[in-house]
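Re: that backbone. Tokens:
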């Protein structure tokens, strides 16, 4: 019989998890047709996970300038709530879709959830139409997109049930890689539309404005429709047991498939610790994505168009970097092990945020909008302040640029040089994908042969909570305290995370290794 599958399935993303060849018994119990259909369905769900992540990040660089355009009353604090609303919707929807998938074919919650995301993207395109309270319509649109993204629980549950133990780690790692790449590469699509500009084109018949802010969302809606078509056409219900034998019924509840209950044997300390690590990792990257646009607009006096274009290019470069990191992980994990790569990734992220700390005696350009306002903040003692005022004329549509005078820290905080920002972004873009995949893979190994649906639900909740709290945290601290406090607190958080990892380092081992069934490879 011809060799089955691609190299990706036969050699998981993070190295060999067991014997590379399949036994003759496996060839008897699973036909070639079933095997192909099973992996075709899994690949469709890789795509679903990727597109779900793209739905979050495809507008991350343009939300702030778009929000300023449609509703000038919105501030950076409200920006944090808009970005967090996505993850709040996902956190609420994940268990609902998960329960649904336990009793009905997985196609149903998948298709409905994607349809909700498509409808929410259409709402986002039209948030400029209402005469007032536009920012709340944007908040609702992003929350509904996140609610649709709650299908991540269905995806993970399906993949866990459709893979044997030998295949599961590689499949879960590929799922994590698809999700991480979606978060990182989403802004690439945004960059492609930046040259359209703020005005773009208008379809008067349906009041549709296609510009640099709405075009990426329309693309996301189109990709969602394509995803629904692929699910209807190619996704099939599959279930195999831990040995890879095909189950007669795919309508099952966790724990009812004959797998030995290993609840008491799982290291719960390692499980909780990995959830905390996963939370911190997603918290940090959500924080960085949220603050990149306001930070560069304040520090370098970029216009809205420039901020979207330049930050999109930067994150596109980070996407290429992430692909290289994922390729390198396959080799490095065999030599160093997942724990060492996780520690190394955290150290790289720490260095990146440390570099972002402001220093020197050069200050950002100050944005001044009202010369008749006599309530000028007092100049901080000993601070060297450089005032560059820009007065938009009455017939000019160009928005003022620079660090807003309302943010009092602008007068006393040195500028973060562009070279600092680029080096820090490169380091964070290197450490994040390594940490993301390593934490997810360690978690899968720690859980062992027991069905992982409930535990994966906890991990999803941890990630959603991180994407809720990260943007809110950084938007509030950045607005009122500035980048020095924001990035300083993040550095302290990463240091504590490294200490936690060191304290439980020896416990973060695979279930089979801890019970002496196999020897640790590295």
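Recovered sequence:
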């Amino acid at each position: 019989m011809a060799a089955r599958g691609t190299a990706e399935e036969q050699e998981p993303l993070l190295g060999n998890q067991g014997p590379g060849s399949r036994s003759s018994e496996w060839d008897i119990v699973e036909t070639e047709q079933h095997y192909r259909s099973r992996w075709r369905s899994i690949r469709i769900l890789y795509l679903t996970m990727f597109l779900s992540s793209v739905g979050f990040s495809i507008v991350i660089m343009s939300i702030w300038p778009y929000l300023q355009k449609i509703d000038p009353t919105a501030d950076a604090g409200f920006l944090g709530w808009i970005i967090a609303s996505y993850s709040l919707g996902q956190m609420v929807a994940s268990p609902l879709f998960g329960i649904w998938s336990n009793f009905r074919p997985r196609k149903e919650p998948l298709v409905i959830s994607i349809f909700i995301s498509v409808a929410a993207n259409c709402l986002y395109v039209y948030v400029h139409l209402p005469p007032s309270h536009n920012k709340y319509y944007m908040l609702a649109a992003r929350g509904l997109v996140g609610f649709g993204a709650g299908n991540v629980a269905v995806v993970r549950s399906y993949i866990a049930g459709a893979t044997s133990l030998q295949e599961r780690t590689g499949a879960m790692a590929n799922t994590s890689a698809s999700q991480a790449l979606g978060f990182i590469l989403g802004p690439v699509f945004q960059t492609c539309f930046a040259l359209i500009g703020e005005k773009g084109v208008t379809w008067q018949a349906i009041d549709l404005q296609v510009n640099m802010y709405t075009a990426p969302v329309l693309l996301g809606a189109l990709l969602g429709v394509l995803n629904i078509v692929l699910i209807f056409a190619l996704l099939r219900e599959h279930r195999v047991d831990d040995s890879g034998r095909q189950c007669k019924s795919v309508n099952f509840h966790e724990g009812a498939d004959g797998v030995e209950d290993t609840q008491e044997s799982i290291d719960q300390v390692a499980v909780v610790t990995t959830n905390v690590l996963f939370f911190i990792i997603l918290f940090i990257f959500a924080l960085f994505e949220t603050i990149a646009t306001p930070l560069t607009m304040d520090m370098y006096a970029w216009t809205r168009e420039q901020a979207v274009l330049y930050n999109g290019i930067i994150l596109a470069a980070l996407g290429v970097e992430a692909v290289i990191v994922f390729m390198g992980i396959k080799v490095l994990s065999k030599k160093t092990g997942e724990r060492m790569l996780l520690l190394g990734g955290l150290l790289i992220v720490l260095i990146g945020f440390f570099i972002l700390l402001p220093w020197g005696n050069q200050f950002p350009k100050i944005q001044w909008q009202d010369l008749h306002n006599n309530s000028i903040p007092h100049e901080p003692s000993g601070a060297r302040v450089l005032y560059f005022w820009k007065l938009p004329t009455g017939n000019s549509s160009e928005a003022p640029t620079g660090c807003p005078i309302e943010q009092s820290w602008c007068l006393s905080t040195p500028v973060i040089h562009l070279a600092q920002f680029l080096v820090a972004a490169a380091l964070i873009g290197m450490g994040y994908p390594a940490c993301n995949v390593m934490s997810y893979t360690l978690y899968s190994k720690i859980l062992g042969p027991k069905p992982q649906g409930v535990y994966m639900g906890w991990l999803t909740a941890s990630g959603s909570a991180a994407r809720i709290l990260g943007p809110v945290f950084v938007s509030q601290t950045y607005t009122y305290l500035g980048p020095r406090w924001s990035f300083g607190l993040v550095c302290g958080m990463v240091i504590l995370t490294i200490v936690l990892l060191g304290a439980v380092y020896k416990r973060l081992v695979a279930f089979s290794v801890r019970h002496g069934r196999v020897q640790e490879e590295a």
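The chain has one domain: 29-252+265-371+402-514. Residues 268-300 form the longest helix (33 residues).
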